[in-house]
From TrEMBL, chains A, B:
Coiled-coil annotated residue ranges, if any: none
Residue ranges annotated for the Ig-like domain, each copy included: 592-686
Gene3D superfamilies, A to Z: ligand-binding face of the semaphorins, domain 2, YVTN repeat-like/Quinoprotein amine dehydrogenase
Gene: SEMA4D
UniProt-listed Pfam families: PSI (PF01437), Sema (PF01403)
Family the UniProt entry places it in: Belongs to the semaphorin family.
Location relative to the cell: Membrane
Biased composition (Pro residues): 551-561
Domain Sema: residue ranges: 17-496
One term under GO cellular component: plasma membrane
Region (Disordered): 546-587
This protein's name: Semaphorin-4D
Alphabetical UniProt keywords: Developmental protein, Differentiation, Disulfide bond, Glycoprotein, Membrane, Neurogenesis, Signal
Amino acid sequence: MPVLAGGLLAALTVAFGTAVAFAPKPRITWEHREVQLLRFHEPGIYNYSALLLSEDQGTLYIGAREAVFAVNALNVSEKQHEVYWRVSEGKRAKCAEKGKSKQTECLNYIRVLQPLSATALYVCGTNAFQPTCDHLNLTSFTFLGRNEDGKGRCPFDPAHSYTSVMVDGELYTGTSYNFLGSEPVISRSSAHSPLRTEYAIPWLNEPKFVFADVIRKSPAEGEDDRVYFFFTEVSVEYEFVFRLQIPRIARVCKGDQGGLRTLQKKWTSFLKAKLICSRRDGSLVFNVLRDVFVLRAPDLKAPVFYALFAPQLNNVGLSAVCAYDLSTAEDVFSHGKYMQSATVEHSHTKWVRYNGPVPRPRPGACIDSETRAANYTSSLNLPDKTLQFVKDHPLMDGSVMPVDNRPRLVKKDVNYTQIVVDRTRALDGTAYDVMFVSTDQGALHKAVSLENTVHLIEETQLFQDFEPVQTLVLSSKKGWGSVYAGSRSGVVQAPLAFCGKHGSCEDCVLARDPYCVWSPSAAACVALPQAEGDARGLIQDMRGDTSVCPAWPPKPSPPPGSSSLSCPGPAAPSSPRSPWLASGAGPSGRSPVALLPPFLRDQAQHVPRMGTFHLFCVPPGPADIRLIWEKDGRALETCVPVQTHMLPDGRAHALSWLRDAIPEGAEYRCSVLSSAGNVTSKVRVAVARAEATHQEHWSRELSAWRAVVGEHSRMMQSWRQAWESCSQDAP
Amino acid sequence: MPVLAGGLLAALTVAFGTAVAFAPKPRITWEHREVQLLRFHEPGIYNYSALLLSEDQGTLYIGAREAVFAVNALNVSEKQHEVYWRVSEGKRAKCAEKGKSKQTECLNYIRVLQPLSATALYVCGTNAFQPTCDHLNLTSFTFLGRNEDGKGRCPFDPAHSYTSVMVDGELYTGTSYNFLGSEPVISRSSAHSPLRTEYAIPWLNEPKFVFADVIRKSPAEGEDDRVYFFFTEVSVEYEFVFRLQIPRIARVCKGDQGGLRTLQKKWTSFLKAKLICSRRDGSLVFNVLRDVFVLRAPDLKAPVFYALFAPQLNNVGLSAVCAYDLSTAEDVFSHGKYMQSATVEHSHTKWVRYNGPVPRPRPGACIDSETRAANYTSSLNLPDKTLQFVKDHPLMDGSVMPVDNRPRLVKKDVNYTQIVVDRTRALDGTAYDVMFVSTDQGALHKAVSLENTVHLIEETQLFQDFEPVQTLVLSSKKGWGSVYAGSRSGVVQAPLAFCGKHGSCEDCVLARDPYCVWSPSAAACVALPQAEGDARGLIQDMRGDTSVCPAWPPKPSPPPGSSSLSCPGPAAPSSPRSPWLASGAGPSGRSPVALLPPFLRDQAQHVPRMGTFHLFCVPPGPADIRLIWEKDGRALETCVPVQTHMLPDGRAHALSWLRDAIPEGAEYRCSVLSSAGNVTSKVRVAVARAEATHQEHWSRELSAWRAVVGEHSRMMQSWRQAWESCSQDAP
């Protein structure tokens, strides 16, 4: 039966969104060996999944499987201390009897690594399904052997989710309470006031815990500190063919003491709300939370949560980052309506907005000056009505929406695992939130929001074995900033930027990296805080406009037979840059050989919208040939590889391939400058309607291949002719 | 905060499914110019979206915008008749006044093209937002000018959805009833008993109609014929952050006369149910219906519906096909429970299963022998209780699940638009349902289910302009089978198979196309029904085992400087195939030049699971070099392009690139056979964990490029040396 073109287009538009802006591929990829990375790996030790940074001490503590290490935070390859916490053979056997794997699951996975005091850490491990906690003395770097029961602080099963934060010496944890993992709990371990959640579906419904942190209030405000928990759980308020996951932000008040009778030793301040991260038109819905980072900065009135998501449904490789103002969340908790469970037809429940009267003091609110003024000085004083209400209504009706009501970043074909964010100032003082997101293939992407788009500055391959990054920690100490990544196999330390890799002012500007500026005095691209001397001379342009760069002496041609990255700026093609130009002849003394055009025009193609394609520019010519790529009349932003080979007759053979992905048709030009003149070849690349299949794309790919091979054939034929004439000359 | 490796893996497993089997890329792609396609296009006429095939008359009727054509069904390029139904200028102006586009929307889009009798068609068009119907006399090929009001039979707006089927001279339609498109309707146009749906959300909730057809019951069964409708609508029973779409199968009974008082002139037999198409683990949910095809065959007890779906959420290019037994649907309607709307907290509704008593006769059931025996001879006799019940309970509780409870085909990176299915018998008598699915880029994919996988036999680029295929029709007349595809720009006719394109027995077997067999007597790959002569000698193996092919004389080497498709079979590398081998010397008389290995080993790489990669085999050698690719010790199934260039010194330069996508690591070998001996180079391609990013893939891509360029450099250096020695010899 027929399909409406209009209807289909409309459907496709809805499917793709009126403004589908998936983040592009990273502009530069740093292969493992290209950049300076420091690594830590202890032979025989795996799962470097707990990282704790002490910037004051300059130490990075690493909780791995059956071991804790202290390494130099400036250089993680320098191990300072180590201590082992192995599971005894007996314990492993006992664990294996319960049906667990002796080689893996029945080992001791460190799950809690928190500061206890200036000289001790609080450490918990799964300990062969017998979760145990201890104190680690930092002076002797030994465990005290306290053997505390870890139930509720640490999961039994290394496969189960967990999160924890130490607040004023007390540990707040979200994890599973039992061996099977069927009883989730958010609890506070405290000598005088331990608290936990109710074991009830409305409170926690098969949660996967992701993150927890404390938000301090200023004492002047008279308000209580809050501890926020982030997790994904099964939704009670939504329904589809299958159970739907829903991301939650939940909070409790630090001063909570539980109730006197109702909610005795239970949270009286536990409230949770939906965290929404989706495109406004509903075409992309990200409802599985992967990680959260709390961005605090002096110039931010309130902290901003950066949350990393994946979709539950139809996830063929999709990730998104949404940012939330803390005040948005607090509004929902402090002023929003509650949800209520209503019974339907005796046996069904539906969660709907509760519009009825709400007891006072407000259920779930922290004890603040207002509450104290009403004579409720502690949660133990709260009236039963309030306590009963919050026990039955932990879920708020309102949703916590992201800043600007849309994601900060949406990327296809990637599974991001962790996120950290550094707020930094560019040269002109503008603040940029630089997002570092790690992938499940061991890479790190660095992205920044620019005007209306997201710019993926670079990708760095941290782990050569492509193992997923399990944890990410940021040290943004000025001038010494690093990102630390933990995986199954080790810890890698990377600088916040690789400014030095940009060899020219143009490259430095085109990178559009807020950390990097061009220093004319040093004639180098350097990290902004480190730039010494005259700050007025520094050059940076976050729009990538290289006209801010001073005119320079020409770059020397690449040495023969070498490969390089050609990152041309908007230099006028009329000023070739070779030092040999004056002579007008090649180095071997023969008359200059004619320049052949690059035959770019043979590569006209249709490409999918935003589908990657290659263009090849293969001009043989004199030794001093230099290629310049242009797109729609402007110099390219990306770097284009060039291979140059010198030939004996003064000719050079250059092969350059350009990779791009475009939303709409564009005209590309490859200009070749040389002493024999300048030649330009151009081609128009059109964008096929909607998204073409990869099959289409690969057909184009092969066509491009054939074009190159054809070009090579022609060259070989011309060489054959030269050969034949030469051999005819020979005796 | 740390991420569990286990948790992440579990999450990824859930996300990707324990057995994520996306259909692979088509094995062969036929470019537009490679194959025999017939096309019809009338200059100035667009939107060839209504196709009606009359196999008896051998005619294909085409309803386009403002025109109806009759073309030869055996060759659509032969126009037989044409008639125009243009909108008058006055009508267009009037339509434009209502805010519509004079150039496009205000024209006459043919939406109904149905057989009325042996000599007439029933035709309706939007007619500048004044839907009108008429009879087309097939003898004179002129419209009678009846100017019937098309409301309810044809939409006003060409962008609105529609479907219709003619049953015993009466038209059953699903479309919108009004100008705005806000009132959906399923209706029967009838002189004596016109019927329509209630205008109520429980009956139809913003539906997008896709397909309708009649299922006849045998008179002996005493049952009524049913008319089924397929559409996607907004779900009342599900809820998420955004409104959820849900595919529906609905049915009415042909004998329905409406009720006497309640449901007067309304359907008394309208029932609908959810159509589910998703992976069993819920990771992929396809809830937008695109097209339906009813497969009828003598060997099928009951018809099978093949339905084509796309996902509403996170659709970055995903399509699925699910097949349904008609009996499954009928069970849900005839024996299943109903859903009931329950009011919650005064203002909300929730749809739940209705468990209470159900009136008799069963609400919504057709009048059958049992009902008649109870004295209800017509719907006009049905008791009010039954009628009131079905008026309030049109939605069944049960879901209609696909055969085997899973999709027949799931494909990434493609948007399928239409489907037809042909049930055919292979040589050994096994029946195969061959699925023809068209894409929104003007291509046609042919797929068949083999054992536990889906085999994408081939892709054919039907439309050079990459326009979406709007409609697909199948003629499976034995020996003359064709697929007809309509798009905005024309109609293309393609054969069901391109058997003749497979030049060898091996290629014919490797194609695994149920239509194609190898005929030794004809020494050709031919379509099965056409194979004449000795059917016992015919060869076919749907597992692709080419050992069924007899041993053959060697294929001649490709001519010099040509490109070809090399599809080697499992020939032993020890028997080279060149006719020049006996001489032991190249054609130019020089001593044979040594064979260089292909340096395949430099291309070791990690690839994403099922991610496409290339391997290049670039061996220079004597003129008679012949390449053979092997994978894991077996000859390849796919065809590998080879470019060969002859050089004056008796050498040849060959360039061959292999494209593949693998689920797990494999070892590839490129063997070069020649008079100078045989050389093999091999490489192992490993599969990176989970899905790697395209970035990773492109890095590998560039590495492979560099390897080729490196190889070329080495060759050029050796030629340079030869040049230098030659030029030194020169005077």
